[in-house]
Amino acid sequence: MAGQSQNITILFADICKSSQLYEVLGDREAQQVIGKILTRLADITEQYNGKVIKSIGDAVMSIFFSVDNAVDASKSMQESIKQNFSNITGSFPINIHIGFHHGPVIIEDRDIFGDAVNIASRVADYAKPRQIVTTKTTIEEMPERLTPLIRYIAKIAVKNISEDIEAYEIVWDKRETTTIMDHQKLSYKFHTKLDLIIGNQTIVIDNKRPSVTIGRMDYNDIVIDLYWVSRSHISIEYRKGIFMIADKSSNGTYIYPETEDMKFIKKSEYPLSGKGCILLGMDKNSESHNEVIIYSVK
Predict the structure, then answer these.
(1) What pTM, to 2 d.p., does this model score?
(2) pLDDT tens digits, one per residue of 85-117
(3) Contacts for 264 with CB less than 8 Å, ≥ 6 apart
(4) CATH number for the domain running over 191-297
(5) At the topology level of CATH, where does 4-172 sit?
(6) Domains of the chain: which residue ranges?
């Protein structure tokens, strides 16, 4: 019987550096610890209405029919490992890294197949210890309440996929998420738009125009035709009161807030506030002429 095609969310949760567990704890005890962790990950999957497809060595592959549930499950997995297993060895912490992707798969004989599985596995491999990584396709399916917890990371290559995949981190640590949410509440109250000025051109980012792209190619909203500027260098997005600049370049981006020290970002994000200027690819000390982008959050 032919398999059924369906859009689902595929999640991989993998124990970091499991080989060290065997070296420190010995084979039998390490196997017991890994077994307990995998069981805990499976329990959390079911708790959030997911289904474990299989265990692969020291990793669990699960599916969810809701992106929301996959996000909540991945955060719960990280919190559970942090609270219950992180100090079990006494010498190094036990961590997991998680990746998930939403897309079409073939469901057949209690297994799943397709490019979406390959992509989910790749972003899981890319994730660092205690990190949750997903894709742009997946975040487009997420509810607005999760928007402040999303951070752009980089474009990554996936085997047998022609185009690079844009990877994003989901912030899960409670202390960090509390800080982000507090920032969001303040932003709702005070910040409604961001003015970008470059030369004689002014662009306003707000609810009506929530994003702007800047780079060397003419498909960007603002074009800066300098050889050290990447084709798609940065984007600035309005996310429920937060103006987030995301660098996607090879040479990075220099941000000079009026009241703070310079910030350098590369393949990462930073929230803009107040006033300042932005330089692409080279800092203020460079002898080369550079276009200055002035920003003002109001």
Answers:
(1) 0.64
(2) 766 666 667 899 999 999 999 988 788 889 999
(3) 252, 253, 254, 255, 283
(4) 2.60.200.20
(5) Alpha-Beta Plaits (3.30.70)
(6) 4-172, 191-297
